[in-house]
Design a protein that fits this description.
76 residues; 1 helix; rod-shaped
Length: 76
């Protein structure tokens, strides 16, 4: 009887160790996914902001130049 109990206890402890290892790997994977997703999002936002700022500068420059030209023509 004691031998059967001992074998079952050893069997359960081995399964628990495997489960613990799987849980650790899963948690690490989830943390890495969140970390890399956050980095990708940050760089995407940074690039989008940079592109938007460049477009704003170009459009503002064109509007300034055309307004300046129109004022110059009107005052001649």
């Amino acid at each position: 009887m004691f031998l059967i109990y001992s074998e079952i206890k050893n069997d359960i402890s081995i399964k628990l160790e495997k489960l613990e290892l799987i849980m650790k790997k899963t948690m690490l994977l989830i943390i890495l996914i969140i970390l890399f997703q956050g980095c990708a999002t940050w760089y995407g936002i940074k690039k989008d902001s940079s592109d938007a700022w460049k477009a704003t500068k170009e459009t503002t420059g064109k509007a300034y130049d055309s307004t300046k030209q129109a004022i110059h023509e009107a005052t001649e």
